[in-house]
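>> received
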Amino acid sequence: MDRDVVVTGIGMVTPLGMTADETWEDVCAGTTATGPITRFDPDEAAIQSRIACEINGSLAEQTSNDRIDDRTMGRYTQFAVTAAAEAIADAGFDPDAPSWRPSRIATSIASTFGGLSEIEAATGQRPSPRFLITALANLAAGHVSMCFDARGPNRSPGTACAAGTHAIADAVADIRTGRADVAIAGGTEAPITPLGVAGFDAMRALSTRNDVPERASRPFDADRDGFVLAEGCAILVLEERSRAAERGVTPYAAITGSGLTADAHHPTRPAEGGRGLQRSLERALEDATLEPDAVDHVNAHGTSTPTGDAREAEALRSVFDTVPPVASVKGALGHTLSGAGALESAIVALAIADRTIPPTVNYETPDPACDLPIVTDACETSLDAVVTTSAGFGGTNGALVFEQS
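>> returned
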């Protein structure tokens, strides 16, 4: 059995907005969410990078979501439950209605750090009985399944910065193979904690443009000096195309291909020439039965790291004879780790539906090592096929192909 998969619902919780519409509007406007860290005192953590993309305030207060429970849900889980509620409503589903068939609903939500802030808060003391259910990385997927009565396949990939893409690819496979009819899929992360920031800071992976945070994340720019850590979540509702048609729902886009590979090279450095990511892209296009020259736009991983961006540029040049317009939204949203691939998948679906390529914020000085056609201003154009890329520590890669539905 092989069934077409479409995106019918989108939910987002990001530093730019508590909904998909708010986030998309600001991304297209070229707004950046980067600012000074306020969730803890950087001086006490002895870190050099003092900037991040934070979500401020209480989610329960900002969203009026009565499903959020501070006692049993970690921060990263609260993001996921909030975004899932929006995505399910956006898709026109009511989990209390007879048309919601619980045993046919999959949940695939990535998180690598899970409840890192909850873990840090419990360190050195006897944990509460609720500690593990706020901290374990699979509890975002678990709580979403419980909140919305989704009893089909349930998983939580922890494959670092490619995990959100992997979660969506796995959910697509659930529907294609008949394991599920509908999937709640995405990624969530809440890593802005003393340990989370200090870990990347110690590796010198983060930007230290503390005096001008709004200019810190600059994918593919010659003056990039590291990424900006971010928190957030995106959830997509995926379903089999004919089911969406029966419901009278217009999809945002179709997901027609995925490719997953490993570099088998180094714990943190991408393979020379971006070979692992290159193979991931090639496999995704093969899965979609699409030639490279049919792709209209690449939503790049583009983290703003010196080596990562250069390797990704090499991969793109290897796959495409003429690289299509490239953009990275990490200049606006920062790097949400396991949430990144999901957020960028949501952005791609919205880009196809709205016929708009969002800008790459802070791209000003071309880098010969990143010789790509970078989009710097939002532009309206027809998008028949778009690819999005992800890569993570451990040499793990992922790519997805989205097409007009």
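>> The chain has a mean pLDDT of 95.
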